[in-house]
Design goal:
Blueprint lengths: L1 H25 L31 E6 L6 H11 L5 E7 L3 E4 L5 E4 L1 E2 L8 E4 L5 H4 L3 H11 L4 E4 L3 H7 L7 E2 L6 H5 L6 E2 L5 E4 L2 E4 L4 H14 L1 H10 L13 H4 L6 H6 L4
Parallel strand pairs: 1-2, 1-6, 2-5, 6-7, 7-11, 8-9
Antiparallel strand pairs: 3-4, 10-11
Length: 269
């Protein structure tokens, strides 16, 4: 019996060898002994890679710097990232990795030297703005970009940097209420709004602090695409949008409402 088994095994191996040789010389596919090991039929699945996506015709450039506030950047990124016409990119003075106030590194695709003209420009706030208001390279870049933008925007104390560059002169603007004095001291020719979640005046959109930037970002979406689209994006992110630009619950809390017109807007609250 043992001899017979060995003979059968040898014959089987010979058949496999002959079949393989035939397949290699004739181009035929060798027969699989069991259908259980046949490859499963390919599924009709559409996979879209980044490379397959159509390029978007417009760019939103977010200016980052050492010590930017993380949510100032990524709240708006969440709301702008799926807009059909706009690609969101980062730009910094030198390009490459830039660390936020919370220690998160973000890669800037562009430097000030090789940046294209952006359609929308946004500068966030953060502790680093105390340095950037005196950075002449930054101020020059903002001025040059502003000449060609459709919208120039800021979150938090980013408005202080825009103000120092002279970009907001003659326009209404707001800033983080905890750092309001710092912002208004950069330029007296700005119509600073002490009670505003965000402000849109002409092509300029500025917001109060940190999370207010997300509300402003949706407000800008509303200005471009309409309120229904803005609300749809907010709902998709499960975000409760404060869609009233004048509803700033932190103005009194943070002690920035020292203008008479600001107090008057509260009525008897």
């Amino acid at each position: 019996m043992k001899t017979l088994s060995l003979l059968l095994l040898g014959a089987t191996l010979q058949l496999v060898s002959v079949a393989t040789t035939y397949a290699q010389t004739s181009g035929a596919q060798p027969y699989a002994a069991s259908s259980a090991i046949q490859a499963a039929p390919a599924q009709n699945v559409q996979v879209t890679s980044t490379a397959d996506r159509q390029p978007k015709p417009k760019k939103i450039g977010i200016v980052i710097f050492e010590g930017f506030e993380t949510l100032d950047v990524f709240g708006p990124v969440q709301m702008w990232g799926r807009l059909p016409d706009y690609e969101v990119v980062m730009v910094s003075e030198h390009g490459g990795p830039v660390r936020s106030s919370q220690g998160i590194e973000t890669i800037a695709r562009y430097s000030f030297e090789n940046a294209p003209q952006f359609d929308i420009l946004m500068i966030p706030g953060g502790g680093g703005t105390r340095r950037e208001v005196n950075n002449l390279v930054m101020l020059d870049f903002l001025r040059e970009q502003d000449k060609g933008t459709q919208w120039t925007t800021s979150v938090c104390t980013g408005s202080a940097v825009l103000a120092k560059a002279g970009i907001l002169n003659g326009h209404k603007a707001t800033s983080n209420k905890r750092a309001f004095e710092f912002a208004i001291n950069q330029e007296a020719n700005v119509d600073w709004q002490g009670n505003a979640r965000w402000v849109i005046d002409g092509k300029y959109a500025t917001s109060s602090g940190v999370s207010a930037g997300t509300d402003m970002a949706l407000g800008l979406v509303e200005s471009i695409y309409g309120r229904a689209i803005a609300k749809g994006i907010a709902n998709g992110a499960e975000y409760e949008w404060n869609g009233d630009a004048g509803n700033d619950p932190f103005a009194r809390v943070q002690g920035a409402c020292f203008f008479e017109k600001c107090f008057a807007s509260f009525d008897d609250q």
